[in-house]
Amino acid sequence: MTAPTTSAPPADEEPGLPAAKDSDVAFDQDRLPAPPNSTALLLRSLLAPMKGRVAVTTLLLLLQQAAVQAGPLLVAYAIDRAVPAFRDHDNGPLIAVGAGYLLCALASGGLQYAFIRASARVNQDVLLDLRGRIFRHAQALSIDFHERYTSGRLISRSTTDVESLRELLDEGLQELVTVILSFLYISALLLWLDLGLGAVAVASFVPLYLLVRVYRRRAGRVYRKRSTAIAAVIVKFVETMNGIRPVRAFRREAANDADFAVLNKRHERVNGDALLEMARYVVGSRLVANAAVAGIVLWGAYRVAQDSLELGVLAAAVLYLRRLYDPIDRLGMFLNSYQSAAASLEKIAGLLAQTPTVPEPSAPRQLPVLESPDRPGREVVFEGVSFGYRTGGEVLPRFDLVLPAGQTVAVVGSTGAGKSTLAKLLARFYDPSAGRVLLDGVDLRDLAMPELRRGVVMVTQEAFLFSGTVAENIAIGRPDAGREEIERAAKAIGAHDFISALPDGYDTDVRKRGGRISAGQRQLVAFARALLADPSVLILDEATSSLDVPGERAVQRAMDTVLKGRTAVVIAHRLSTVEIADRVLVMEHGRIVEDGTPAELTAGTGRFADLHRAWRDSLA
Q1: Which of the 8 DSSP states describes residue 507?
Q2: CA nearest to 413, candidates 613, 602, 590
Q3: 412 forms bridges with which residues in the sheet?
Q4: For residues 358 and 552, what is the distance between their CA atoms, to the nearest angstrom?
Q5: DSSP-derived secondary structure for 27-59
Q6: What is the C-alpha to C-alpha distance for residues 404 and 443, in angstroms, rounded to an integer?
Q7: Distances in Å between the alpha carbon of 445 and those of 66, 138, 359, 451?
Q8: What CA–CA distance (Å, rounded) separates 571 from 557?
Q9: What are the percentages of helix, strand and coil residues in the chain, rounded to 5?
Q10: Confidence bin at 306 (pLDDT 50/70/90)
Q11: CA 264, CA 300: separation in Å to the nearest integer?
């Protein structure tokens, strides 16, 4: 057969992706683009389902603060009324003051306990919801996002950044609300007790407000840098531990240690900057508060001496001022937590604002019913397809290709020829830049993901196994399968004997990434998983390239079982894998340059014939 023609795009149609946007080319993993006010909208959406509980929690804090702020009023009444009455042998007012103070203390303690319990439940439910959202959204995002956004940063978003929000919810918000309520209660009471003292106290909040604004602006920048710095530390740690074998093999320990030291030092420096900003705020706020209290006490004492102010009112005013200014340090701690949480929420909101580039269809369609269940294969058609990645550059120029139902097609070519990209389009890990991929006449973009994943399954070079039993890993292909079906699939693949020899048979925990069994055994488990899933189209992407000869032969025997009756696309470097194919496609620079049966291409003088002769010579 001759190579298929590669049609040129019409003059009015640009092949590949449109010109990459700046946001696509300069993908900032630490500052993902997000809509305006996305942080506030995220926080509002987290609290919206808990409006009733938030209202009850707020009411408890309002009542608790009312009980707390009644104390100085009772002191003023005691000094100006109860003590003079006691001198006149009237014990009633003083006893009433003592009983009132005790009741306020008990009420304050009880309401504080109720508030902490109620707020703790709200906070934990918010964090539970947020972690779940991050996890679900990360799974829903397309493959191209995960290829650009490191797993270490995802871990940082769901751990360090969520922990920053936890600190804010557990401690900071209570401090903020307490300070605001104290300011409102105390300002109103001071103005009611004495207009002059109240006006001076309220005026003293102007410089404090300016200090808070400056601190928020400066600390905001610092905490954004801190969130980025800790994410970089986590990314480096995860990357090193995941690649511990090549690290040891190439003696990268010292170099990695040096790189980690730089990142760790940067994190330390940013933390130091955050503490320095906090220190500046605390010193400035205490200076303003102490100066205001000193001035009011001196002015109040002068007025008491002039009989224009009662001593009890001055005592209450001083107590209120101390209560007003004492939380200033705690307000600084809130601002500390707030800036950290705001920076973290900004990053989380940016992550949650990302949309899948491979979206679910708005009106999904179903695949046609198979005419013969014994022949589960479906026809695959690439119709006017071209593709390029976001970073620019066309990988697959426009082409047309038909894979008849039940045909096994091997795709060969040099590294970077576009073989895996073609497979990823068929698996709909990506959507074509132009054209469409059809499965029995249905555009893959019109299939709901569950329907597509039932119809098309990919087995990759690294047969990834999850922590859990062998049976659980095989059943990933069809979670509702019973033990008999799982064992039947394993027997058909030729994996039953080695699985039965494991310590607990099918109930043996394969541990992290399937590290308890060999690469060939993991690949057999992956094939059993694919067979159990019973797809119409099976994609094998370098499924034997990492195996030794015995392992490859075992997997090839399994492939004969798995591929029977199905449409299959086999991406192969080893030409021994090609021998099972009905048809071979040779790719170069994203184009299909040869197309024919293995025998036809081997007998020819093209690229495949050269590859086949080189392979035969290597065996000799």
Answers
A1: G
A2: 590
A3: 586
A4: 34
A5: --TTS----TTHHHHHHHHHHGGGHHHHHHHHH
A6: 16
A7: 60, 20, 8, 11
A8: 17
A9: 65, 10, 25
A10: confident
A11: 53
Q: Using CA atoms, how far apart are residues 585 and 470, in angstroms rounded to an integer?
A: 35
Where on the phi/psi map is residue 188: left (φ > 0), alpha (ψ -120 to 50), or beta? Answer: alpha
Q: C-alpha distances in angstroms, 256 versus 234, 241, 266?
A: 13, 11, 15
Residue 317's alpha-carbon distances to 108, 219, 287, in angstroms, are: 21, 33, 19
Q: Give the model confidence (pLDDT) of 518-560 as tens digits.
A: 877 888 888 888 888 888 899 888 766 555 566 666 666 777 7
**Cβ atoms 149, 142 nearer than 8 A:** no
Outline where 78-91 has alpha helix (H). 83-87
**b vs e for 166-176, b when ≥16 Cβ sit within 10 Å of the residue's Cβ?**
bbbbbbbbbbb
User: Which residue bears the tokens 């980025």?
Assistant: 228
Residue carrying the six token digits 């192969």: 572
Q: List the beta bridge partners of residue 381.
A: 402, 438
* Residue 435, CB-side half-sphere exposure with 13 Å CA sphere: 26
Strands 567-571 and 408-413: parallel
Task: Give residue-wise pLDDT tens across range 389-425.
Answer: 776 677 899 999 999 998 999 998 888 888 888 999 9
Q: What is the mean pLDDT of the chain?
A: 80
Count CB atoms within 10 A of the CB of residue 147: 11
pLDDT, tens digit, 9 for 90 and up, residues 316-336: 777 777 777 766 666 666 766
Q: What's the rounded Cα separation, in Å, for the pair 607 and 453?
A: 34
> Which of 89, 88, 105 minimizes the C-alpha distance to 97?
105
**What is the pLDDT, as a whole number, of residue 426?**
92
**For 141-171, where are the alpha helices, taking DSSP H only?**
143-148, 151-156, 162-167
Alpha carbon 20 to its chain centroid, in Å, reads 25
pLDDT at 583: 92
Instruction: Record the pTM.
Output: 0.68
Nearest Cα to 483, choosing from 497, 493, 469, 494? 469
Average pLDDT, stretch 566-592?
A: 84
Nearest to 240, CA basis, from 225, 258, 216? 258
Q: What is the largest CA-CA distance in the chain?
A: 125
Average pLDDT over residues 156-167: 82
DSSP H stretches of helix in 141-204:
143-148, 151-156, 162-167, 173-193, 195-203
What local confidence, expressed as pLDDT, does residue 21 receive? 37
Please state, in angstroms and rounded to a whole number, the distance separating the CA atoms of residues 268 and 270. 6
Which band of pLDDT confidence, cut at 50, 70 and 90, is reported for residue 511?
confident
Rounded-to-integer distance, Cα 567 and Cα 379, Å: 7
Q: Two tokens at 374?
A: 């014994």
Region for 14 from its dihedrals, namely left if φ exceeds 0, alpha if ψ lies in -120 to 50, beta otherwise: beta
How far apart (Å, rounded) are the C-alpha atoms in residues 164 and 171?
11
Question: How far from chain centre, in Å, is Cα 603?
Answer: 53
What are the pLDDT digits (tens) for 370-386? 776 667 788 999 999 99
Half-sphere exposure of 55 (CA within 13 A, CB side): 5
User: Got the DSSP string for 393-424?
Assistant: -EEEEEEEEEE-TT-EEEEEESTTSSHHHHHH
